[in-house]
Design brief:
Helices cover 50% and strands 15% of the residues. By secondary structure, it is an alpha+beta fold. The longest helix has 34 residues.
Length: 149
Amino acid sequence: MHRKFIALIIATAVAVTGVSASQARAADAKDILGGLAAIAIIGAGVHYYNKEKDKKRASRHQTHIQPHHPVRPRPHHLAKYDLPQKCLRTFDHYSPRHQLLGTGCLKKHYKYANSLPRECKVGFWNGKKVKRAYEPACLRQQGYRVVYK
């Protein structure tokens, strides 16, 4: 970015100097066109040089490709942080676009439901009683993740 800016400044300076000098000696259009052609040739040369330099830089970075390692399952002591995806649902009285993890579903399908952080539990009025559910974003910040199986 800085090189292009400096090249633009230099090209503008050379063009202005050439035009003002040609006006001072009352030169014709051939001199002005010659100066502009020289600037265009210099600009094309700088552009070609930068392009070749970028190619060399890109080819240098492509040689360090790391081998692909198979993904291993998480250890059992970390698997307790995997929440079931089937418990994600939208509650109309909470937000029609925002999904929550239902407490009843978590109690059925997640054996560590009682150890979930209380600060992630939200309550909302559904018209009859207060419903409770868990915020996935809050649980994600606590180290939990929703597993899509």
